[in-house]
Amino acid sequence: MAKSIGVLRVKQDVDIQAPRQRVFQALVEETSAWWGSPYLRDEAAAQAMIIEPRLGGRLYEAWGEHEGAEWARVTAFRLHELLELEGRMALSGAVTGVVTFRLEERGETTRLHFSHHALGEVSPQVEQNYIKGWRDLLMLRLAAYVEKGVKYGIGHPPPADAPVFDELGAPNM
């Protein structure tokens, strides 16, 4: 059965109680501390989620020496302000997308403006799972890590109230 073409649209704003530089550092340099199960392509092999913080850098899941899965490439980068990624972001099939993180300082708080748009073999269920997954990753896990030092990333159990996914579009995010 042929898959139909669909669109994925996720847009979220997250307020994190920390300076913009700290949020950006956690987002880009400490990704493995907050990004973990079930948002991995291979949970058993995953050793790190790595963002190479430069234009043309990769977002990838490292499984060992010279092993892993590329999720996306950095297509726009401005230190402490902007990270834009282009790629499949672990979606299966013929699909491409753009993920954007924009950080806005608001006094003692940083507002993270986030969007993920993709086109391809994306069902409505997959879109709903990505909406829930990004909310969990950013509003709960990233915020908890930056604000309280709580790790829900690789090698740590997910939060007790993490969303549960069915098999359709369950991550491997």
Structure, described:
The chain is an alpha+beta fold and 173 residues long. The protein has a single domain (6-148), classed as 2-Layer Sandwich (Alpha-D-Glucose-1,6-Bisphosphate, Chain A, domain 4). It contains three helices and seven strands, in the order E-H-H-E-E-E-E-E-E-H. It has helices spanning 20-29, 31-34, 124-148; strands at 6-16, 48-51, 58-64, 67-78, 82-87, 95-106, 109-120. A seven-stranded antiparallel sheet has the order 1-7-6-5-4-3-2, with helices on one face. A hairpin with a 2-residue loop joins strand 3 and strand 4 (67-78). The longest helix has 25 residues, at 124-148. The protein is globular, with a radius of gyration of 15 Å. The two termini are 23 Å apart. The mean pLDDT is 93.
Number of helices in the DSSP assignment: 3
Largest sheet: 7 strands, antiparallel
Q: What do we call the CATH homologous superfamily?
A: START domain
Contiguous low-pLDDT stretches (5 residues minimum) are none
CATH topology: Alpha-D-Glucose-1,6-Bisphosphate, Chain A, domain 4
- In the CATH hierarchy, the architecture is 2-Layer Sandwich
Distance between the termini: 23 Å
Question: Averaging pLDDT over every residue, what do you get?
Answer: 93
Rg on CA atoms, Å:
15 Å
- Share of residues in helices: 10-25%
Order of helices and strands: EHHEEEEEEH
Biggest sheet, spatial arrangement of strands: 1-7-6-5-4-3-2
Strand content: 35-45%
Shape: globular
Number of domains: 1
CATH C-level class is: Alpha Beta
User: Count the strands?
Assistant: 7
Q: Kindly name the structural category.
A: alpha+beta
